[in-house]
Amino acid sequence: MTQLQKAKNNEITKEMRYVAEQEGVEVNILRENIAKGLVVIPANINHKNLKPIGIGYGLKTKVNANIGTSPIKSNLETELRKLDIAIKAGADTVMDLSLGGNLDEIRRKIIENSSVPVGTVPIYQATIEIEAPENLTLDKYLEVFKKHAKDGVDFATVHAGVTMEAIPLLEKRLMPVVSRGGSFLINWMKKHNKQSFLYEGFDNVLDIAKHYDITISLGDGLRPGCIEDATDEAQIYELKILGELAEKCRNKGVQVMIEGPGHIPLNQIEKNIRIEKEICKNAPFYVLGPLPTDIATGYDHIACAIGGALAGMYGADFLCYVTPKEHISLPDANDVREGVIVTKIAAHIADIAKGRELSKYQDKKMSEARSKLDWTAMAKYALDPKTFRKLVKEECKNNPDISEGCSMCGEYCTEKRK
Fold it and tell me: Which of 267, 261, 252 lies closest to 205 in space, CA to CA?
């Protein structure tokens, strides 16, 4: 039985107990929220070294880090290093989006070495193995998805909401489809002039997900890839389909969350969160960014943090990081770390805005340490202690006794003089 089925049967699992303890919430309330579909615990029965996390209502805003090879750059050791760095930086989950190399080996090694939930996008491997999206079949997709499931993948992006009816709506866009999975399905439907095999065969996908307790992450294959296309007819049409599919998941006993945009201006973020929560019955919302501008290339991680903080405040539950290399190239290990840190900052800001007491407590303890010029305690409560200690060490080279204040104010330090 899945976490959702057990929650509906009033059963408290060891994963629920662990999450409740980590979050500082009452376990029966957590169980009730899982039963209602407000919270998911992505925990494949085959992921043996997993420390489970919860995503959704009443819990800390979570952060995902995307890793994985490309057709141009493929090195397993590099991806395992990215995995290690992402987890140490505070990523709550990772996604293996590999497109190059031995995909099965890469995925299995990532799961084997990951203590956090691992997600994948099965349509990537299915397409690569048959060499062209127009040759995809439901059977091939299910074959790959089952392989991911057996390996221990905890959540999977499924673009089942991309349907034929949306194709005419894309003609109005500046950038029709920026999702790889979405583009694969659009090309397939145009080639065969048939409804999406993922939409029509969704029950088969759920059978596998239910057996292994994989959380379905309903992918936004028609997410806007630029501000010009934000919150348009195609995006909202797909979201309505995702609402129907989410209900299918719940009825089947499969945990589900919803993926969201994408490039969205700040003044539309609240509307996007509200619409998703209404259409999808408050299912956990997993957003990429959102990016509130198209021109922050090289600094997209910062733009992402601005959009993510606002999205989290309005009710997004799960933020997918963006790195400085977004729209440019495959990120390296340093990019991964920076992407995680800035997105963790956004998530923490959102949690304060939501009134989460544990988040507010951490800020209070930092303020107490600052008021005493206690640099050791400041490092303890800093979101990125590694960088904080590095900067303090550099400061000490020119200012040996920083207990008397840093070089910004010197003898005029307000905390020293109070």
Answer: 252
Residue tagged 């074959």 (tokens): 143
Give the Cα separation of 15 and 66 in Å (integer): 24
Quick one: tokens of 204?
A: 């088969």
Burial readout 29-67 (b: 16 or more C-beta within 10 A, e: otherwise) = ebbebbbbbbbbbbbbebbeebebbbbbbbbbbbbbbbb
DSSP labels for 175-240?
S----HHHHHHHHHHHHHTS--HHHHTHHHHHHHHHHHTPEEEE--TT--SSGGGTT-HHHHHHHH
Residue 394: its pLDDT value, please?
A: 87
CA-to-CA separations, 24 to 18, 58, 63, 267, 357, in angstroms, rounded: 10, 10, 18, 33, 9
Q: Are 93 and 84 in contact (CB under 8 A)?
A: no
Of the candidates 412, 409, 415, the residue with the CA atom closest to the CA atom of residue 395: 409
Q: From CA 258, how far away is CA 47, in angstroms rounded?
A: 22
Task: List pLDDT tens digits, range 20-29.
Answer: 999 999 999 9
CA proximity to 56, closest of 217, 242, 231: 217
Rounded CA separation 153/212 (Å): 9
Identify the structural domains of the chain with CATH numbers, from first to last: 3-355 (3.20.20.540), 358-417 (no CATH)
Percent of the chain whose pLDDT exceeds 90: 91
pLDDT of residue 261: 94
How far CA 53 is from CA of 19, 115, 210, 216, 285, in Å, comes to 6, 10, 19, 15, 15
Query: Are 116 and 67 a contacting pair, CB within 8 Å?
Result: no
| pLDDT at residue 418 tops 70 | no
Mean of pLDDT values over 64-83:
96
Tell me the pLDDT tens digit for each residue of 344-391: 999 999 999 999 999 999 999 999 999 998 999 999 999 999 999 999
Quick check: 341 and 90 in contact, CB under 8 A? Answer: yes
Sign of CA dihedral 228, 233, 236, 241: negative
Whole-number Å distance between alpha carbons of 395 and 393: 5
